[in-house]
Every structure is written in C-alpha cells, then in structure tokens.
Design brief:
The protein is mostly helical. It is built from six helices and five strands; from the N terminus they run E-H-H-H-E-H-E-E-E-H-H. The strands form two sheets. It has a three-stranded parallel β-sheet with strand order 1-2-3, with helices on both faces. Strand 2, helix 4 and strand 3 form a beta-alpha-beta unit. Helix 1 runs antiparallel to helix 2, helix 2 packs parallel to helix 4 and helix 3 crosses helix 4.
C-alpha cells in the first residue's frame, strides 16, 4: 500500500490560502499560520495520530512481511534562490512569491519531512519483536526531497521542475510538475463546479482541489521512485 499523510495535520490548506492564494487585503496572516503549523508539527498528537493510522492500516493487512506500507513524504514547491519570481503571484492581488516567502515554505516542507521520518522510525521501533517485522521493516518511509543517486549524492525528485526554476517565470509552465491555481490543463467543464440544481450542493472545482499537487509528469516521476524503492525493499523469497 502507498500513501501520503501529514500535510493536512498541520493545516496545509490554511497555509496555501494565507500564504499563496488569498488577496492581501483580506484578514489573516501568513506568518501566524506558519507558526501555528510548527506548533502542530511539534505536538505529541501529530505522532499519535499518524501512528493510529499506521495501526489501522496494518490491522487490515495480512500479518506477513510481504505486506508493506510505503509512506511518501512531501516535495518542496519552490526554487527559493531565483529572483525572477520575486514579483510573481498566483493571481492578480495575491502575495508576491519573494525569495523570503519561498524559503519559509520550503523550510516548513523540510521540517515536515524530518518530523515524519522521526514518527515513522519511532513506529518501526515499536514493532521490534514481531515475527512479521523480524526480516525487515513493513513500513517504508520515502522522502522525495532526500533521495540518493548511484554516486551517493543527495537530490530531490522534483529538482528542476518546481515553481520559479531559473528562467521559468510562468507559474503554469509545462516544465513545472505541480499544478498552479486554475492551471490551464486542470480546468474542467462548468458542470463540474456549479451547484447541482436538485441537491443545491456546491461541488469544489477540480482546479481548486488539485492546486499544488503533482501534475501527470510529477506522478510519473513518483511512480519511478516507488518502483525503485519496491525493488530495494521487497522481501526476498516466498
């Protein structure tokens, strides 16, 4: 089984709204939202809640070493070193994507991944003595921003394909592996987001829900990464 977990536990949607897509004249504060996320990240409940999810998943799996859970962590959204994006926004009046803001968001992503690694390793330690874990961990944490190549060098899976790469000022450029807000290739028909005439329920448009998530090229890279991890971590034998 493969999953991504942890971002919503520190309020990812609030961070995206306050720091990236909300008009500056609306109430709210990006720095306060980031500070709140750091508090949530450091809290005991963060680990407890994730361990509870692990427990629920393994409880539904066969107690066998061949049944594994691959927990994929998060990507940094930005190249934080380029000046080209300093005056860019995701709309007309949103916060500017300054190097300072990009650096803060990347630092939070790094902190989240570091904490998730700690949480995962603590869970693995708790499984010591269980027969199905004796020949290797059944929980495989993967940090896509801390991969290692054949030369022992560390790299990020999305390196060269984040927002604000050198020479790429269009946030919706095809070379970027994340969806921007209202990305051209993510727009659906009007029927996808207007209230249904009978239920009167508002359906969140797909272009809103998939913003800042990987595009197809990004998922293809994730697939390759996962295949390599499976080859390295799958137990040998029957």
């Amino acid at each position: 089984m493969v999953m991504t977990l942890g971002g919503n536990d520190i309020g990812f949607s609030d961070i995206a709204i306050e720091c990236l897509v909300k008009a500056q004249y609306f109430p709210g504060d990006c720095d306060q939202t980031l500070a709140k996320a750091k508090v949530l990240l450091a809290a005991t409940r963060f680990e407890t809640d994730i361990h509870a999810v692990y427990d629920q998943i393994f409880a539904k799996m066969k107690d066998d070493r061949h049944y594994q859970l691959y927990h994929i962590f998060y990507h940094r959204f930005f190249n934080a070193d380029t000046p080209e994006c300093d005056r860019k926004t995701f709309a007309l009046v949103n916060p500017r994507l300054t190097r300072t803001l990009r650096g803060k968001l990347n630092s939070l992503a790094d902190a989240l991944n570091t904490r998730l690694e700690q949480v995962a390793q603590n869970y693995i330690l708790k499984q010591q003595g269980k027969v199905s874990w004796s020949q290797g961990s059944r929980l495989i944490p993967i940090n896509p921003d801390r991969l290692t190549n054949g030369n022992g060098e560390t790299y990020g899976l999305f390196d060269g394909h984040r927002f604000c790469e050198p020479g790429v000022t269009n946030l919706r450029d095809p070379s970027v592996w994340f969806f921007a807000t209202i990305a051209k290739d993510s727009l659906q028909t009007r029927e996808d987001y207007v209230p249904h005439s009978r239920t009167r329920q508002f359906v969140v448009p797909e272009f809103a829900t998939q913003s800042f998530h990987p595009r197809s090229a990004g998922f293809r890279a994730v697939k390759r990464m996962l295949q390599e991890s499976l080859q390295q971590n799958r137990p040998a034998g029957g």
